Amino acid sequence: MAVLGHIIKGIIEARDVIKTERNPIDEQKVVLRDLLERAKNTKFGDHYNFEKILKVNDPAEAFATDVPYFDYNSINERWWSQLHEGKENVTWPGIPDYYALSSGTTGKTSKRIPVTQEMINAIRKAGIQQVFALSNFDMPPDFFETGILMLGSSTDLIEKDDHLEGEISGISASNIPSWFSGFYKPGKDIAAIDDWDERVQLIAERAKEWDIGAISGIPSWIELMLEKVINHHNLENIHEIWPNLQVYTSGGVAFGPYEKSFNALLKHPITVIDTYLASEGFIAFQSRPETDAMQLITDNGIYFEFVPFDPDYIQQDGSLVADAPALSLAEVKEGQDYVLIMSTVSGAWRYLIGDTIEFTDVERAEIKITGRTKFFLNTVGSQLSVNKLDKAVRHIEEKFDMKISEYTLCAKRFDDGFYHSWYLGAEGSAEEDSLVEALDEFLQSANKNYKVARSKALQGVKVKRIDPDIFYEWNAKNKKKGGQVKMERVMGEDKFAEWEAFVGAQK
Fold first, then answer.
1. Claim to verify: residue 362 and residue 422 sit in the same structural domain
2. Alpha-carbon separation of residue 191 from 26, 29, 199 (angstroms)
3. Is the model's pLDDT at 70 over the cut of 70?
4. At what angle do helices 219-232 and 469-478 cross, to 10 degrees?
5. What whole-number distance in Å separates Cα of residue 2 and Cα of residue 8?
6. Which Gene Ontology cellular-component terms appear in the entry (predicted)?
7. pLDDT grade, residue 478 (50/70/90)?
8. CA pair distance 81, 360, nearest whole angstrom
9. Quick one: what percent of the chain has pLDDT higher than 90?
10. How far apart are CA 103 and CA 178, in angstroms?
11. Is the pLDDT of residue 105 over 50?
12. Within a 13 Å sphere around the CA of 434, how many CA atoms are in the beta-carbon half?
């Protein structure tokens, strides 16, 4: 009998019974005031007169008026660079305990994003909130006695001066509470290995020793890990070795494009719970099974603003124009894309994280990630977000009964004009000509801007099918395997030329 599991489940359910009703709008007002109060004596707080903002009737409006938008480059050049020079109290009291290294999906030199102890505490609190939300998913008691396999970046952080550096998943895993260590797999020794292939090989070799009930990580890398375990033990599916696997916690990207290829590795369906953890903080998690949307964490060290995702507000590099209007949580509407703006206990202020989101339920503050500002395909007026591209990929998966584990594309100029040139990491027998026709027809029917573009400068679609492994090798070449690394969905022409040269060299 799962005695411990019954106890844990009982605690979770009891907390669920006594918890008070949330009011995300009020919670955000409290968070903003707390952020301003705690940072008012920093160099940043003094420069933008947080004392004055705190005294007005509407701090949110004054904050949006007096403090400009920042992306990583602008805040790092103007403010965070002072931290690297040894200065204190720059954008947050004291100095950061960690820096999250993030190359995002660009492949450029890693960003170094401050992570304070307050942010570590906020991430831990958000993780506990997510555990308590499991009461809504009606998991059996024995689930709470199984292991949780977390596949992120290495926990062997780089020691530098007075802080540690690493990817946010490695920083988070290195700070897991002691009570959780008995459930955590692959364990500290394996998690500290920097080489991703070596780490996954050891996971495969040790897999029989573990009773895994949940796995967590970026979908593409989780799939590769599961395939490695299956192949190493000559299995039909992962449930042959982990029969109690019941939950997958996805994160960082939309799970939809990976659903078909992921499910092919299972014997039976499992519960998929989306989470939204970025280098800048733990943003949202799926709190109930009735929806695949995620609930913003509105009471825990992050203040959110939302800029309508309009081409007039987005510059060529993905940053915002200075006068782009920002809405508070009280002002947003469902069904519209917004650029996500964050201010945090790590000293990020009105910070453009680079993601776009859509509200599915404003009252509950539930969202879906719809894309990236830099991956907005609008070269010839087609106005396609990643969310719309994902839907097109899912459509052709269903139409041709095929699996597409990765893709990328570019609005590329050919001799006769612009085409959307797609590369699909696909398994199946569909011909490229059939995929071209299906993609073009779907996008025209699903998106009026694309249809208009097709009648003007956009000549059509080109498709090339390639081995999915080429996408993973591209990431390995340009960045690093595993961790928070994600494939760029939309490339500019220069980067796409590098990509096509790389693909050609693999043949």
1. no
2. 39, 38, 7
3. yes
4. 120
5. 10
6. cytoplasm
7. low
8. 38
9. 35
10. 30
11. no
12. 11
Residues contacting residue 55 through CB under 8 Å, at least 6 positions apart: none
**Which of 8-17, 80-89, 233-242 is the most confident on average?**
233-242
DSSP single-letter state for residue 70: B
Q: How many other C-beta atoms lie within 10 A of the C-beta of residue 243?
A: 13
**How much is the pLDDT for 252?**
65
Residue 487 has pLDDT above 70, yes or no: yes
Alpha helices in 214-324 (DSSP H): 219-232, 259-263
Give me the CATH number covering residue 133.
3.40.50.12780
Place of tokens 């398994």: 427
Average pLDDT, the chain: 84
Residues 370 and 384 in one domain: no
Instruction: Please name which of 255, 258, 303 lies closest in space to residue 281, comparing C-alpha atoms.
Output: 303
What is the residue range of 447's domain? 377-506
Q: Are strands 247-251 and 184-185 parallel, antiparallel or unpaired?
A: unpaired
Q: How far apart are CA 330 and CA 350, in angstroms?
A: 17
Q: Is the domain of 354 the same as that of 409?
A: no
Q: How many domains does the chain have?
A: 2
Among 349, 374, 399, which residue terminates a domain? 374
